[in-house]
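Structure first, sequence second, as always.
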Protein backbone atom coordinates (compact mmCIF):
# COMPACT_ATOMS: atom_id res chain seq x y z
CA UNK A 1 0.00 0.00 0.00
CA UNK A 2 1.29 3.48 -0.83
CA UNK A 3 1.30 6.51 1.42
CA UNK A 4 -1.88 8.58 1.36
CA UNK A 5 -1.73 11.28 -1.32
CA UNK A 6 -1.58 14.79 0.17
CA UNK A 7 -4.88 16.67 0.45
CA UNK A 8 -5.49 20.29 -0.42
CA UNK A 9 -6.14 22.46 2.64
CA UNK A 10 -9.61 23.21 1.26
CA UNK A 11 -10.50 19.51 1.38
CA UNK A 12 -9.51 19.10 5.04
CA UNK A 13 -11.17 22.38 6.02
CA UNK A 14 -14.38 21.59 4.17
CA UNK A 15 -14.53 18.04 5.58
CA UNK A 16 -14.14 19.39 9.11
CA UNK A 17 -16.85 22.02 8.57
CA UNK A 18 -19.30 19.46 7.14
CA UNK A 19 -18.60 17.03 9.99
CA UNK A 20 -19.23 19.70 12.66
CA UNK A 21 -22.27 21.06 10.74
CA UNK A 22 -20.65 24.45 10.25
CA UNK A 23 -21.67 23.70 6.68
CA UNK A 24 -25.23 22.36 6.54
CA UNK A 25 -28.15 22.14 4.14
CA UNK A 26 -28.26 19.94 1.05
CA UNK A 27 -27.27 22.52 -1.56
CA UNK A 28 -24.64 24.14 0.66
CA UNK A 29 -22.98 20.81 1.45
CA UNK A 30 -22.97 19.80 -2.22
CA UNK A 31 -21.50 23.12 -3.38
CA UNK A 32 -18.80 23.04 -0.69
CA UNK A 33 -17.79 19.49 -1.66
CA UNK A 34 -17.55 20.45 -5.34
CA UNK A 35 -15.43 23.51 -4.51
CA UNK A 36 -13.10 21.37 -2.36
CA UNK A 37 -12.65 18.85 -5.17
CA UNK A 38 -11.86 21.70 -7.56
CA UNK A 39 -9.12 22.87 -5.15
CA UNK A 40 -7.73 19.33 -5.00
CA UNK A 41 -7.83 19.08 -8.81
CA UNK A 42 -5.83 22.29 -9.16
CA UNK A 43 -3.32 21.70 -6.38
CA UNK A 44 -2.40 18.01 -6.55
CA UNK A 45 1.18 17.47 -7.66
CA UNK A 46 0.61 13.95 -9.00
CA UNK A 47 2.53 13.46 -12.26
CA UNK A 48 0.96 10.26 -13.61
CA UNK A 49 -2.68 9.56 -14.43
CA UNK A 50 -2.84 6.74 -11.88
CA UNK A 51 -1.44 8.94 -9.11
CA UNK A 52 -3.81 11.75 -10.06
CA UNK A 53 -6.86 9.50 -9.93
CA UNK A 54 -5.76 8.15 -6.57
CA UNK A 55 -5.31 11.67 -5.18
CA UNK A 56 -8.78 12.70 -6.32
CA UNK A 57 -10.38 9.55 -4.89
CA UNK A 58 -8.57 10.17 -1.60
CA UNK A 59 -10.11 13.66 -1.49
CA UNK A 60 -13.52 12.22 -2.30
CA UNK A 61 -13.20 9.60 0.45
CA UNK A 62 -12.19 12.27 2.98
CA UNK A 63 -15.29 14.30 2.17
CA UNK A 64 -17.63 11.29 1.97
CA UNK A 65 -16.66 9.98 5.39
CA UNK A 66 -17.82 13.17 7.13
CA UNK A 67 -21.59 12.65 6.68
CA UNK A 68 -22.19 9.71 4.28
CA UNK A 69 -25.95 9.72 4.85
CA UNK A 70 -26.32 13.34 3.69
CA UNK A 71 -27.59 12.51 0.20
CA UNK A 72 -26.30 15.65 -1.50
CA UNK A 73 -22.70 14.91 -0.49
CA UNK A 74 -22.21 11.58 -2.31
CA UNK A 75 -24.20 12.97 -5.23
CA UNK A 76 -21.73 15.86 -5.57
CA UNK A 77 -18.89 13.32 -5.56
CA UNK A 78 -20.65 11.08 -8.08
CA UNK A 79 -21.30 13.94 -10.47
CA UNK A 80 -17.79 15.40 -10.39
CA UNK A 81 -15.52 12.38 -9.94
CA UNK A 82 -17.73 10.29 -12.23
CA UNK A 83 -16.80 12.68 -15.06
CA UNK A 84 -13.04 12.46 -14.45
CA UNK A 85 -11.50 11.17 -17.67
CA UNK A 86 -8.40 11.55 -19.80
CA UNK A 87 -5.14 9.89 -20.77
CA UNK A 88 -2.83 12.36 -19.05
CA UNK A 89 -2.77 14.45 -15.89
CA UNK A 90 -3.75 17.70 -17.56
CA UNK A 91 -6.77 16.12 -19.26
CA UNK A 92 -7.87 14.58 -15.96
CA UNK A 93 -7.47 17.93 -14.21
CA UNK A 94 -9.49 19.79 -16.84
CA UNK A 95 -12.27 17.18 -16.75
CA UNK A 96 -12.67 17.50 -12.97
CA UNK A 97 -12.61 21.30 -13.09
CA UNK A 98 -15.19 21.32 -15.88
CA UNK A 99 -17.40 18.92 -13.91
CA UNK A 100 -17.21 20.94 -10.68
CA UNK A 101 -18.05 24.13 -12.59
CA UNK A 102 -21.01 22.47 -14.31
CA UNK A 103 -22.23 21.06 -11.00
CA UNK A 104 -22.11 24.37 -9.10
CA UNK A 105 -23.74 26.19 -12.03
CA UNK A 106 -26.52 23.60 -11.95
CA UNK A 107 -26.98 24.13 -8.21
CA UNK A 108 -27.21 27.89 -8.68
CA UNK A 109 -30.05 27.49 -11.19
CA UNK A 110 -31.76 24.44 -9.69
CA UNK A 111 -34.40 25.89 -7.40
CA UNK A 112 -35.39 28.60 -9.85
CA UNK A 113 -35.72 26.07 -12.69
CA UNK A 114 -37.61 23.65 -10.43
CA UNK A 115 -40.02 26.42 -9.44
CA UNK A 116 -40.87 27.15 -13.05
CA UNK A 117 -41.53 23.48 -13.76
CA UNK A 118 -43.75 23.08 -10.71
CA UNK A 119 -45.67 26.28 -11.41
CA UNK A 120 -46.83 24.81 -14.71
CA UNK A 121 -48.83 22.20 -12.77
CA UNK A 122 -50.70 24.90 -10.84
CA UNK A 123 -53.70 26.65 -12.39
CA UNK A 124 -55.20 30.01 -11.63
CA UNK A 125 -57.49 29.60 -8.61
CA UNK A 126 -55.87 26.39 -7.31
CA UNK A 127 -55.53 25.55 -3.63
CA UNK A 128 -52.51 23.59 -2.44
CA UNK A 129 -52.15 21.69 0.82
CA UNK A 130 -48.64 21.73 2.25
CA UNK A 131 -46.81 19.75 4.91
CA UNK A 132 -43.71 20.89 6.80
CA UNK A 133 -41.46 23.56 5.24
CA UNK A 134 -39.83 23.09 1.84
CA UNK A 135 -38.13 25.88 -0.11
CA UNK A 136 -38.46 23.73 -3.26
CA UNK A 137 -42.23 23.44 -2.80
CA UNK A 138 -42.51 27.14 -2.02
CA UNK A 139 -40.57 27.96 -5.22
CA UNK A 140 -43.37 26.33 -7.24
CA UNK A 141 -45.99 28.53 -5.61
CA UNK A 142 -43.84 31.65 -5.91
CA UNK A 143 -43.38 31.16 -9.66
CA UNK A 144 -47.11 30.52 -10.10
CA UNK A 145 -47.86 33.79 -8.30
CA UNK A 146 -45.26 35.60 -10.41
CA UNK A 147 -47.09 34.28 -13.50
CA UNK A 148 -50.21 36.09 -12.27
CA UNK A 149 -52.02 33.01 -10.96
CA UNK A 150 -54.12 33.30 -7.84
CA UNK A 151 -53.14 30.49 -5.49
CA UNK A 152 -54.37 29.74 -1.97
CA UNK A 153 -52.93 27.31 0.56
CA UNK A 154 -54.04 25.01 3.35
CA UNK A 155 -50.99 24.64 5.58
CA UNK A 156 -50.60 21.82 8.08
CA UNK A 157 -48.90 22.86 11.31
CA UNK A 158 -46.54 19.85 11.13
CA UNK A 159 -46.01 19.06 14.78
CA UNK A 160 -44.08 18.69 16.95
CA UNK A 161 -41.79 21.44 15.58
CA UNK A 162 -44.56 23.39 13.80
CA UNK A 163 -42.54 23.99 10.63
CA UNK A 164 -45.86 24.75 8.95
CA UNK A 165 -45.84 28.11 10.72
CA UNK A 166 -42.72 29.03 8.71
CA UNK A 167 -44.45 27.93 5.51
CA UNK A 168 -47.53 29.99 6.37
CA UNK A 169 -45.45 33.11 6.98
CA UNK A 170 -43.53 32.75 3.71
CA UNK A 171 -46.69 32.13 1.71
CA UNK A 172 -48.31 35.21 3.22
CA UNK A 173 -45.22 37.15 2.16
CA UNK A 174 -46.01 36.10 -1.43
CA UNK A 175 -49.57 37.35 -1.04
CA UNK A 176 -51.06 33.84 -0.87
CA UNK A 177 -54.28 33.34 1.09
CA UNK A 178 -53.42 30.86 3.89
CA UNK A 179 -55.52 28.63 6.13
CA UNK A 180 -53.53 26.99 8.93
CA UNK A 181 -54.88 23.65 10.20
CA UNK A 182 -53.81 21.11 12.80
CA UNK A 183 -52.30 17.94 11.34
CA UNK A 184 -55.22 15.71 12.29
CA UNK A 185 -57.62 17.91 10.28
CA UNK A 186 -55.89 17.20 6.95
CA UNK A 187 -58.43 14.67 5.71
CA UNK A 188 -61.31 17.06 6.33
CA UNK A 189 -59.68 19.86 4.31
CA UNK A 190 -58.47 17.73 1.42
CA UNK A 191 -61.87 18.20 -0.22
CA UNK A 192 -60.93 21.88 -0.59
CA UNK A 193 -57.49 21.18 -2.09
CA UNK A 194 -56.50 20.79 -5.75
CA UNK A 195 -52.98 19.55 -5.03
CA UNK A 196 -50.88 18.26 -2.18
CA UNK A 197 -47.48 19.93 -2.54
CA UNK A 198 -44.54 18.70 -0.43
CA UNK A 199 -40.75 18.60 -0.56
CA UNK A 200 -38.44 15.67 0.10
CA UNK A 201 -35.39 14.90 2.18
CA UNK A 202 -34.43 12.14 -0.24
CA UNK A 203 -35.95 10.11 -3.06
CA UNK A 204 -35.17 6.44 -3.55
CA UNK A 205 -34.46 4.76 -6.88
CA UNK A 206 -38.00 3.36 -7.03
CA UNK A 207 -39.50 6.85 -6.56
CA UNK A 208 -40.27 6.38 -2.87
CA UNK A 209 -40.21 9.71 -1.05
CA UNK A 210 -38.56 10.22 2.34
CA UNK A 211 -39.96 13.37 3.92
CA UNK A 212 -41.17 14.83 7.19
CA UNK A 213 -43.20 12.41 9.31
CA UNK A 214 -46.87 12.63 8.34
CA UNK A 215 -46.25 12.90 4.59
CA UNK A 216 -47.12 9.26 3.97
CA UNK A 217 -50.46 9.41 5.79
CA UNK A 218 -51.34 12.63 3.97
CA UNK A 219 -50.53 11.00 0.62
CA UNK A 220 -52.73 7.98 1.36
CA UNK A 221 -55.65 10.21 2.30
CA UNK A 222 -55.07 12.42 -0.74
CA UNK A 223 -55.12 9.44 -3.08
CA UNK A 224 -58.40 8.24 -1.53
CA UNK A 225 -59.83 11.72 -2.08
CA UNK A 226 -58.49 11.95 -5.64
CA UNK A 227 -56.15 14.86 -4.90
CA UNK A 228 -52.85 14.63 -6.85
CA UNK A 229 -49.59 14.61 -4.88
CA UNK A 230 -46.69 16.65 -6.25
CA UNK A 231 -43.22 16.29 -4.71
CA UNK A 232 -40.77 19.14 -5.35
CA UNK A 233 -37.12 18.16 -4.95
CA UNK A 234 -33.86 19.21 -6.54
CA UNK A 235 -31.88 16.38 -8.08
CA UNK A 236 -29.31 16.51 -5.27
CA UNK A 237 -32.04 14.85 -3.18
CA UNK A 238 -32.04 11.72 -5.38
CA UNK A 239 -30.62 8.73 -3.51
CA UNK A 240 -28.92 6.31 -5.96
CA UNK A 241 -27.64 4.06 -3.15
CA UNK A 242 -31.18 3.25 -2.03
CA UNK A 243 -33.41 0.89 -4.00
CA UNK A 244 -36.51 1.71 -1.94
CA UNK A 245 -37.23 4.38 0.62
CA UNK A 246 -37.86 1.72 3.26
CA UNK A 247 -34.14 0.97 3.43
CA UNK A 248 -33.33 4.54 4.52
CA UNK A 249 -32.54 4.84 8.22
CA UNK A 250 -35.13 7.10 9.87
CA UNK A 251 -33.80 9.63 12.37
CA UNK A 252 -35.38 9.46 15.84
CA UNK A 253 -35.45 12.87 17.49
CA UNK A 254 -35.42 13.91 21.15
CA UNK A 255 -38.54 13.07 23.14
CA UNK A 256 -38.43 16.59 24.61
CA UNK A 257 -40.00 17.79 21.35
CA UNK A 258 -43.07 15.74 22.24
CA UNK A 259 -43.35 15.76 26.03
CA UNK A 260 -41.80 17.89 28.76
CA UNK A 261 -40.47 16.64 32.08
CA UNK A 262 -43.55 17.62 34.12
CA UNK A 263 -45.94 15.87 31.72
CA UNK A 264 -43.79 12.76 31.72
CA UNK A 265 -43.83 12.69 35.51
CA UNK A 266 -47.59 13.09 35.59
CA UNK A 267 -48.25 10.34 33.03
CA UNK A 268 -45.80 7.84 34.45
CA UNK A 269 -43.38 5.45 32.81
CA UNK A 270 -43.98 5.40 29.04
CA UNK A 271 -41.95 5.03 25.88
CA UNK A 272 -41.86 8.14 23.72
CA UNK A 273 -40.81 7.89 20.07
CA UNK A 274 -40.34 10.86 17.78
CA UNK A 275 -39.42 9.78 14.23
CA UNK A 276 -38.41 12.68 12.01
CA UNK A 277 -39.35 11.15 8.64
CA UNK A 278 -41.51 8.56 6.96
CA UNK A 279 -41.57 6.92 3.53
CA UNK A 280 -44.30 7.53 0.97
CA UNK A 281 -44.46 4.62 -1.50
CA UNK A 282 -44.27 5.68 -5.16
CA UNK A 283 -47.81 4.47 -5.90
CA UNK A 284 -49.15 7.45 -3.92
CA UNK A 285 -47.09 10.06 -5.79
CA UNK A 286 -48.33 11.59 -9.04
CA UNK A 287 -45.28 13.63 -10.05
CA UNK A 288 -41.77 14.39 -8.83
CA UNK A 289 -40.77 17.88 -9.94
CA UNK A 290 -37.06 18.63 -10.35
CA UNK A 291 -34.98 21.24 -12.15
CA UNK A 292 -34.65 18.67 -14.95
CA UNK A 293 -38.42 18.43 -15.44
CA UNK A 294 -41.31 16.49 -13.94
CA UNK A 295 -41.26 12.72 -13.73
CA UNK A 296 -43.58 9.90 -12.68
CA UNK A 297 -41.97 8.09 -9.73
CA UNK A 298 -41.15 4.98 -11.78
CA UNK A 299 -39.00 7.08 -14.16
CA UNK A 300 -36.84 8.71 -11.49
CA UNK A 301 -34.21 5.95 -11.70
CA UNK A 302 -33.51 6.94 -15.32
CA UNK A 303 -32.75 10.49 -14.21
CA UNK A 304 -30.49 9.17 -11.45
CA UNK A 305 -28.45 7.15 -13.94
CA UNK A 306 -28.20 10.11 -16.31
CA UNK A 307 -26.84 12.38 -13.59
CA UNK A 308 -24.89 10.09 -11.29
CA UNK A 309 -24.20 6.86 -13.17
CA UNK A 310 -25.25 3.38 -12.09
CA UNK A 311 -26.67 3.19 -8.58
CA UNK A 312 -23.67 1.27 -7.25
CA UNK A 313 -21.08 3.69 -8.66
CA UNK A 314 -18.81 5.18 -5.99
CA UNK A 315 -16.12 7.01 -7.97
CA UNK A 316 -14.29 7.98 -4.78
CA UNK A 317 -13.38 4.28 -4.49
CA UNK A 318 -11.02 2.30 -6.70
CA UNK A 319 -12.64 0.52 -9.67
CA UNK A 320 -12.42 -2.83 -7.87
CA UNK A 321 -14.12 -1.43 -4.77
CA UNK A 322 -10.97 -1.33 -2.67
CA UNK A 323 -9.86 1.65 -0.61
CA UNK A 324 -9.30 4.71 -2.75
CA UNK A 325 -5.69 5.07 -1.66
CA UNK A 326 -4.47 1.53 -2.24
CA UNK A 327 -5.02 1.03 -5.96
CA UNK A 328 -3.65 2.26 -9.30
CA UNK A 329 -0.04 2.02 -8.27
CA UNK A 330 2.62 1.27 -10.82
CA UNK A 331 6.38 1.15 -10.88
CA UNK A 332 6.80 4.64 -12.32
CA UNK A 333 4.56 6.76 -10.12
CA UNK A 334 5.68 8.53 -6.94
CA UNK A 335 4.38 7.55 -3.53
CA UNK A 336 4.05 11.09 -2.17
Amino acid sequence: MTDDPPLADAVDDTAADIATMEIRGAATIAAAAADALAAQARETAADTPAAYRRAMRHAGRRLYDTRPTAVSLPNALRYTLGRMEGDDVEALRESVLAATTAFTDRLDRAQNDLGRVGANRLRDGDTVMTHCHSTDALACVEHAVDQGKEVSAIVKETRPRNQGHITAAELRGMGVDVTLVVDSAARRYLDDADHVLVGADSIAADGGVVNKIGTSGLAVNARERGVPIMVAAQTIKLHPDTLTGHTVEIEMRDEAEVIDASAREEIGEITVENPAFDVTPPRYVDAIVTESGQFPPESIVTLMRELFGESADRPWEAPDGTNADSADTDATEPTT
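Margin note: The domain at 120-308 is CATH 3.40.50.10470 (Rossmann fold).
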